[in-house]
Design brief:
By secondary structure, the protein is mainly α. Helix content is 70%, strand content 0%. The chain starts with a helix and ends in a 5-residue tail after the last helix.
Length: 171
């Protein structure tokens, strides 16, 4: 017998969280999915920055379409926000710090994609590769971004909790 209240208040299987999930090492499905999206966003934005900087500073054309890559990053940001809000609405008190951190970090990753696209647009407006003091000012930070994003990916759960807990070392 299925009661009306059971149908009204039941959650889809992928949103159900068992009591034992609170004590297990595994994360709720929506957060695990969001961490996967976050990893994919970092994997996408890292080459975007390198390609945009190479376009601006060296005049080389990007191998991939930065607009398409940025659209994929933006879509993943929306998916993560939706999943985290859904998780918080349905699960309440579980994994709140991780949920809030995900929302913050996903916004930063999306912004990195936007900035890479803006660098490429600047290159399109220029007559050639950027030279002089402005190029020197941009060269070091643009070279450092890929080196800063790569160590973040292993810190995402469930890969290396110690690295996430103690921080990513600076290059």
């Amino acid at each position: 017998v299925v009661y009306f209240s059971d149908a009204l208040f039941s959650r889809p299987p992928f949103l159900r969280m068992s009591f034992f999930d609170l004590f297990a090492k595994r994360k709720p499905a929506l957060l695990t999915q969001s961490l996967g999206h976050m990893d994919a966003m970092l994997a996408t934005t890292e080459p975007m920055v390198a390609a945009a900087a190479a376009r601006l500073l060296d005049g080389t054309a990007p191998a991939d379409d930065l607009n398409t890559a940025d659209a994929a990053v933006n879509e993943r940001e929306r998916q993560v926000r939706r999943a985290v809000l859904g998780h918080l609405a349905l699960s309440g008190e579980t994994e709140v710090p991780l949920s809030l951190a995900l929302v913050s970090v996903v916004q930063d990753a999306e912004r990195i994609g936007d900035l890479a696209k803006s660098l490429a647009r600047m290159a399109d407006l220029a007559d050639g590769p950027l030279t002089g003091t402005h190029a020197d000012t941009l060269r070091a930070p643009s070279a450092a971004v890929p080196g800063r994003l790569a160590p973040l990916r292993p810190a995402l759960p469930p890969r290396d909790p110690a690295l996430a807990r103690h921080g990513v070392p600076h290059p």
